[in-house]
Design goal:
The structure holds two protein chains of two kinds. By secondary structure, chain A is mainly α. Chain A contains twelve helices and two strands; from the N terminus they run H-E-E-H-H-H-H-H-H-H-H-H-H-H. Chain A has a two-stranded antiparallel sheet. Helix content of chain B is 72%, strand content 0%. Classes of the chains: A mainly alpha, B mainly alpha. At the A-B interface, helix 1, helix 3, helix 4, helix 5 and helix 7 of A face helix 1, helix 4, helix 5, helix 6 and helix 11 of B.
Amino acid sequence: MIRNRKKEALVALVLIAPFAATYGLVFVYPTIDMFVLSFQKAPLIGEGRWLGVDNYTRLPGDRRFHTALWNTAYFVLLSVVPGTLVALGISLGVSRLSGRLQALVLALFFLPYILPVSVVFRIWDWTLNFQFGIAMHIFDLVGIDRIPIFKVTDWFMPAVAVITIWWTAGFSILLFLAGLRAIPQEIYEAASLDNAGTWTTFRRVTWPLLWPVTALVLTIQLILQLKIFDQVYLFSQGGRPNDNLVMVYYIFQRAFVNNDGGRAAAIAVVLFIMVIVISVLNFQLMRFSERRS
Amino acid sequence: MTPAKAKRYNVAGAVITIFTVICAVLWAFPLYWGIINSLKPEDEVIRPYIELWPDTFTLDHYIFALTRTQIGTWYINSIATALGVTVLTVSTSMLCGYAISQLSFPLRRPLWWLILASFMVPTQVLIINHFVLMADMGLLNSWAGIILPQLIHPVVIIVYKQFFDQVPKEFREAAVMDNAGEFRILFKVYLPINWGVTTALSIVTFIWAWNAFLWPFLAVTKTEMMTITVGITQVWDAFGVYYARQLSAAVLAGLPVALAYLVFQRRVTQAITLSAGIKG
């Protein structure tokens, strides 16, 4: 077939132009601007002046930055692996069901994921309400003292992690179910002919064959939870935001509360680099394990 | 399997099934609890014991939310911005995905790498610069200002390219024989074949945009320009300390996406697994 190269390139240009224009405006330009801003002393809106690396060198001695970094790591620890295991357990249970029952049970587990964070916040704020929450009635029954969960620093992150797992598990469950469906039934039949028990079958068949999906879920969760903001912000309202800072929250606070665009941008760059490094490392790991298998 | 073993297996299986169903019910219980309390009168809501079913049902809180607060305006803002994000994201991504999949042009590879790379970039770190940019353009407190920074969804292009790649080459060759131009090929051949994935991507993009919190929260300071996810948590005097009212507003905010999911369950599931890079 003869192709008119010039014409084809022109058509391509027309097709790409709308995307390229939006991407340039709201992605490429802001990313470059973030790096530039991080080397300036600048308010959020208005002219800044060149400062050099000061915004970065101040970070190691910044107490709020320490809190944000530590809390983010703590939150990742509390949510990523536990959340993945919970989702795996649920999907193993759901995959045994069939027909309408499976669809119904899956929908019950999945529904929270589809909801806006504000709704999740309202529901849990109500469920865990110090005076009237149903959880506190249960605390009373069991004989635990009531706790104003979101006002106590020690309880805050674990509670938000549990809520986040509840909220986002649906996504991981879908991926696990797709992975489980991809395992050929014959392998299980062979295993049962060999008289392999449930646990042995899981350890020798399901787990290794499901590992690529598990790795994918872990990575997606890790990157997602590094960027946590919404839940922490909402549950901190009227509480102790400075104790509950996470990275994105601190960027928000520096920029929009302290009107310090330059230092906020420096924190943003740090988070940006963290996420990119983890993504690249993970990509390499996946490629490595793919080549090995 | 020996009969005794098969029987034991069946009992164990039934126990696991029942356990899974109980877990599912408990999992969804907070949702039920939120909805049922929004239908109780306020004095029943704050009774000091657990009542799983209301004595009296009332729609008062919903009527209050719909008539005495700005929730109607927030609804309109949410619908307009979520639709804007969906239409713009899906249409620009479709055109670009087609070009990358089917046409050869200079800088095709670098463009594809840029899109794949942007998949990794956390958009949350760009909030400062998005804010400055939208302020410079005079778009804060406007629909356009809420929409524009939400148009970064590289995954939509990636999925489109995969699907366009899978269309058999014969379709294209036949169309070219008929002297069809690229636009005709795209809209008469490639798009109809991939109608399902277009629907799926549109629904999830709409859900993402409806659920967006951080950016709409920053882009808007006037209560009449807020989206519903921002409005119900940021306007304190709208509902007062009436738990049932707050819950009714939350139910209203979650209803459209919950319905979208229940109606298009299969499509939503497909799009979400696709967005994670797993073929559905």
